[in-house]
């Protein structure tokens, strides 16, 4: 082990849509977590790995903390809460453009019982006038004793290098947990399913996104050696939603497949044959056995 090499686990927490996935993707240098303008896009703890000669940071991008309205919602919130006790450092992301809200107060109340140091990361500073920034920060400082306060723009990359250095300085001495060129611990099937789900979120209306789950049932290189075959099933809760997802003469599903295939080909560096099917699993978000089937179950500690 190199002298003073630092490593550890860092949770990204915050209200839905504050830019957690955007920040992690920027830091890692490629897409690990899917991004959407719809809340609760992140459902699983996405593990992203940032490695330098100084140390290694393993990020857990948790679901946005919100008031749950289904068993899936309860699972998402519990996943985020579990991250508090699993990590060496917590990054609490807030939206500078929105300012202090009830959701932020709720999160800070939950953090009061946590011994882990907390950084306040004020995101989207590109959307506010510089004169507004200090008063916004003061609002949060009056409510909680943060170890550091760092204003950034995850989308534009402003001040993210400073944030990374402060994170490394705070982590304990430790080993390199993962190879230097590894950027996530998720299997390729999971990443493929998330990319497909992202395209569904982009193309569907409000009543569809949260009722969708994607499972990659088959993923293999064809005998010609240059085409990756992926068969995935898109599950929704009602027949009416299935019709919307397929679209007139299959148009919407074809567009989902087109966009997903383009991104998957860039990711895997080969041609992709994508075979998509839409199926109905009634009220799956409130059925424990279906939640487990779709991968939303208690996860082992990472620390």
List the helices and strands and how they pair.
Layout lengths: L5 E8 L6 H9 L17 E6 L3 E7 L9 H16 L2 E7 L6 H10 L6 E6 L6 H12 L6 E4 L8 H11 L17 H16 L9 E9 L5 E10 L2 H8 L4 H18 L2 E10 L7 H6 L10
Parallel strand pairs: 1-3, 1-4, 4-5, 5-6, 8-9
Antiparallel strand pairs: 2-3, 7-8
Structure description:
This protein has 303 residues and is an alpha/beta fold. The chain folds into two domains: 6-170, Rossmann fold (3-Layer(aba) Sandwich), CATH 3.40.50.300; 188-293, GMP Synthetase, Chain A, domain 3. Helix content is 35%, strand content 22%. The protein contains nine helices and nine strands. It has helices at residues 20-28, 71-86, 102-111, 130-141, 160-170, 188-203, 239-246, 251-268, 288-293, and strands spanning 6-13, 46-51, 55-61, 89-95, 118-123, 148-151, 213-221, 227-236, 271-280. The protein has a six-stranded mixed beta sheet with strand order 2-3-1-4-5-6, sandwiched between helices. Strands 7-8-9 form a three-stranded mixed beta sheet. α6 (188-203) packs antiparallel against α8 (251-268). The two termini are 19 Å apart. Mean pLDDT is 80; it is low at 34-44 and 297-303.
């Amino acid at each position: 082990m190199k002298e003073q090499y630092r490593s550890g686990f860092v949770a990204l927490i915050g209200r839905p849509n504050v830019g957690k996935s955007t920040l992690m993707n920027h830091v890692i240098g490629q897409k690990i977590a899917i991004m959407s303008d719809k809340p609760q896009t992140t459902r699983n703890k996405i593990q992203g790995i940032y490695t330098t000669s100084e140390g290694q940071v393993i990020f857990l991008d948790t679901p946005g903390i919100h008031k749950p309205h289904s068993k899936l919602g309860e699972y998402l919130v519990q996943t985020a809460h579990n991250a508090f006790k699993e990590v060496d450092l917590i990054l609490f992301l807030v939206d500078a453009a929105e300012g202090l809200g009830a959701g932020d107060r709720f999160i800070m109340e939950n953090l009061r019982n946590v011994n882990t140091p907390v950084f306040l990361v004020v995101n989207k500073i590109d959307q506010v006038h510089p004169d507004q920034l200090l008063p916004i920060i003061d609002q949060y400082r009056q409510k909680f004793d943060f170890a550091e306060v760092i204003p950034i723009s995850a989308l534009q990359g402003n001040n993210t290098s400073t944030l990374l250095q402060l994170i490394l300085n705070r982590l304990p001495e430790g080993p390199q947990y993962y190879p230097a060129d590894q950027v996530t611990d998720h299997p390729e099937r999971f990443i493929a399913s998330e990319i497909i789900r992202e395209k569904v979120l982009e193309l569907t209306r409000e009543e569809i996104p949260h009722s969708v789950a994607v499972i990659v049932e088959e993923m293999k290189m064809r005998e010609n050696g240059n085409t990756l075959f992926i068969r995935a099933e898109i599950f929704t809760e009602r027949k009416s939603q299935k019709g919307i997802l397929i679209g007139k003469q299959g148009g919407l599903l074809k567009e989902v497949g087109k966009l997903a295939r383009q991104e998957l080909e860039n990711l895997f560096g080969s041609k992709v044959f994508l075979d998509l099917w839409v199926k109905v699993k009634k009220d799956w978000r409130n059925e424990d056995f279906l939640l487990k089937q779709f991968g939303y179950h208690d996860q082992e500690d990472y620390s």
